Amino acid sequence: MTQDELFKILVAHCKEYGFIFPSSEIYDGLAAVYDYGQMGVELKNNIKRYWWEAMTRLNENVVGIDSCVFMHPKTWVASGHVAAFNDPLIDNKDSKKRYRADVLIEDYLSKIEEKIQKEVDKGRKRFGDAFDEAKFKETNPNVLREKAHYDEVHARYKAAEDANDLEAYRQIILDCGIVCPISGTKNWTEVRQFNLMFSTQGSTTNADDKLYLRPETAQGIFVEYLNVQKTGRMKIPFGIAQIGKAFRNEIVARQFIFRMKEFEQMEMEFFVRPGTEMEWFRAWKENRMKWHVNLGMGAENYRFHDHEKLAHYANAATDIEFHFPFGFKELEGIHSRTDFDLGNHQKLSGKKIQYYDPETGESYVPYCVETSIGVDRMFLAVLSHSYKQEQLENGETRVVLSIPAPLAPVKVAILPLVKKDGLPEKAQEVVDLLKYDFAYQYDEKDSIGKRYRRQDAVGTPFCVTVDHDTLADGTVTLRDRDTMEQTRVKIEDLPAIIGAKVNMSNLLRGL
Ligand code: GAP
In angstroms, how far is CA 408 from the centroid of its own chain? Predict the structure, then answer.
């Protein structure tokens, strides 16, 4: 199965089992907007809890806030979003479809890479064990031709990006003969800058009363910096964390929840003494990677990607990339943002945003190191890594989500073997014992095998089966999702056994 096919199956699985639905589907959906279903919301909440508790409980000097989506319009002037939060867009005149010019070129480059890979695969088939991939790539004329073309287009693309040259983007699209996937034509408009912020009108018709839906949660933290620092008597270095919705008018296709118009971010701004920011940047890089790896989804599936070209406000930046089904892609960004944000808010608001440092006797605008991760991307990372189709010894296939147990939407399913003989009543006693500590499902419909499969498909770490022996000796069968091993345990031992594997506190202890 190709990674592309796997991704399609995953999207279908998310819908079938109540994780994610296309938004307003009865009206044929809305591009790049998705709703979380009954299973999805539980997984999402658990991801948020893992982040929130790691940030605000395990770091004594990090506190949380919850600021609003709407903010004073000047916020977005100070942050630079009004002037510079743009994507280069191009329209096809025949299909009337709009595309990101940079994405059209990147897709074209990916296709060249695929062609090269196909040649390599053919070579491997032809030469078998004697195949030397490096040598093949250095000598095969088809590969060399494609590679030279790739390098030329890539160099032009990077130059256009660096110079923000919209005409150069268009020329690459024309020279490469890139066509609209819908109309199949090359009838393109000029490339224009398109601001990604959604706006709406406030309560007056005054043009200055234009409100924006925040494109990042970070600015809510910057504008509350003074309030939190003063009321919390915070001493530098300290951090402010926030989880909340963000909105961007993204022009995207086929990326599921990787890139959405409405999404959630978990951001933390860490305020430090100027000159110490690189030390904190390194510390937070390490801290955040540890948080990811601690989930047990394989250290090899993460990597840092340091930015060579820095945004004007940053003096260091890196992404934590995850191995998604469509390759290594950004999951989280870590930026050293200098005093850009607080400094600009100080200028535009006219309010003094300074910290008096009792240790040095100086006042300054603090520098800031930011960690910013999308909840939805984290959700996709967990789900895409967890989805498995396993071939069983009896020839059947089982679909299982091996979600890290503390993040699983349902921790335990309680299943009476049959719907009679007092077993449902006994199972209800087990429910009453477990329901205060664990998200559970009670299920008495269909054969026990089918019920196990249903729980595997949503990633439930434990199934507890109540049978006739339970009535006699107070023991139940406990089935483990990952090993499918079944053990006989006493009902009163269930909370401790289940808790050891699924409790968030145990996951946090690994940090
Ligand atoms: N405050 C910094 C900031 O917003 P960003 O790299 O634009 O930086 C941070 O976004 C993270 O938010 C990304 O690493 C990604 O996980 C998530 N993210 C950004 N845009 C997104 C979108 N359109 N849909 C889903 N997640 C998104």
Answer: 16
Sign of CA dihedral 204, 206, 208, 213: positive
- Decide: pTM greater than 0.70: yes
Query: Residue 263 and residue 331: Cα distance in Å, rounded?
Result: 13
Round to whole Å and give the CA distance between 274 and 366.
6
DSSP H helices, 306-437, are 340-349, 375-386, 423-434
Residues with CB under 6 A from ligand 1: 216, 218, 248, 250, 259-260, 263, 265, 267, 330-333, 370, 372-374, 376-377
Question: What's the pLDDT score for residue 295?
Answer: 98
**Cα(230) to centroid(ligand 1), Å:** 29
The percentage of residues in the chain with a pLDDT greater than 70, rounded to a whole number, is 99
- Cα distances (Å, whole numbers) of residue 369 to 46, 290, 304, 366, 495: 25, 17, 16, 10, 41
Contact yes or no for 247/198 (Cβ under 8 A):
yes
**Computed over its alpha carbons, how large is the radius of gyration of the chain?**
27
Name the closest-CA residue to atom 16, ligand 1. Answer: 374
Low-confidence ranges of the chain (pLDDT < 50): none
Looking at this protein, which amino acid is placed at residue 105? I
